[in-house]
């Protein structure tokens, strides 16, 4: 008998490990609930709820194939080897199949499980599934991992031209097994159940994810390049949560994009080219996670930026986290995140740069806050995005290129529609004043809306000064050591 251990691959179709297990013989599926590990990883309550809802849908579809889903608890991943071994020995499992995951804790967990099973004569098979290319297969001429995205993308495109990754056939129904499927808990202690309004924004199941993909590919993808940066427009695919949980695969997304562009991804529709580039960005950051494991440990990719003199400013951090900075585009973005579990990608960059440059607060504070609230929270993408904005990461924005949140607001929300939706207290302002209510006059600006907690121009100069001193600070530190 075979066992598929489900993790961030909550789908029946195009699931490499599931199909491989079913080809070998009668198969059961298993999922581990690990609340203490999830808390340690700052997984958001809405994300955990999303996992459970998708697991219920997946359990129903697997039962159509007579594949029962077993649910076990391993509070931390350190307990995973013992739990899996007990299940395997109880059911007479010959082989365990998994799709690869790439964080340092995930890698160590799988190595420990592999060793425990192997010692008892049980096979352990892992497969490439959540990436188009295996980490280590896209390298520079010197044999190192790429640090520049454009160079990485070029190699990826060359490989895709030679051969597209194929969609894996879904398993067929098997004979019934004398094993009952387990029920899933409605909630997990330590993770509050999100309100129904948020849940309704993110319905569970492969059918929903596929429908979103097909609608985007047929109706919106060709306008993606022009409309993706405007948060008041429906210009994005809204697939990130489904990709992060593995409810849909990058292969399925790539094939759908190419079908809408006559099989091309570098010519034809600029929207398709841009969207496929975003898929490659997700790929790039996961390769970075493997090639440079320090980023899994909350370390800066650029070692010298560990010496940035970040400020300890708890009141300003709290104002940022609450959407009370007095800068409307920042506050509207944070309120969108708190209400929906998601933030528009352009806004993620603006918000992250405001925290790390204008407030000069450590990017790790923002990375943690995002993970605790994002329904699409993904270690590689979130870390990569934060380090890009903070100028501490691979291929990151130069430290002297600092977004002005007011001009970004005017450019990407010109009518103030997004701001007014999330900050109704500013609804009466005109499209010029809404970006900077302090300019509207009056001793205290707009009632019920705070004054800016920082001067944008002065804080920019402070950030430039902090980063310019890095080489000297590094040399002093090295000499001191």
Number of domain units? 3
Helix content: 40-55%
CATH architecture of the largest domain: Orthogonal Bundle
Discrete helix count? 21
Main sheet characteristics: 5 strands, parallel
Order of helices and strands: EHEHHEHEHEHHHHHHHHHHHHHHHH
**Principal-axis shape:** globular
The CATH class of the largest domain: Mainly Alpha
Query: Could you give me the name of the CATH homologous superfamily of the largest domain?
Result: DNA Cyclobutane Dipyrimidine Photolyase, subunit A, domain 3
Summed over residues and divided by their number, the pLDDT gives a mean of 94
Tally the beta strands.
5
Please report which band the strand proportion falls in: under 5%, 5-15%, 15-25%, 25-35%, 35-45% or over 45%: 5-15%
Distance between the termini: 56 Å
Please identify the structural class as seen in this structure: mainly alpha
Cα radius of gyration in angstroms: 24 Å
Can you tell me the residue ranges where pLDDT is under 50 for at least 5 consecutive residues?
472-481
Give the strand line-up of the largest sheet.
3-2-1-4-5
In the CATH hierarchy, the third-tier topology of the largest domain is known as DNA Cyclobutane Dipyrimidine Photolyase, subunit A, domain 3
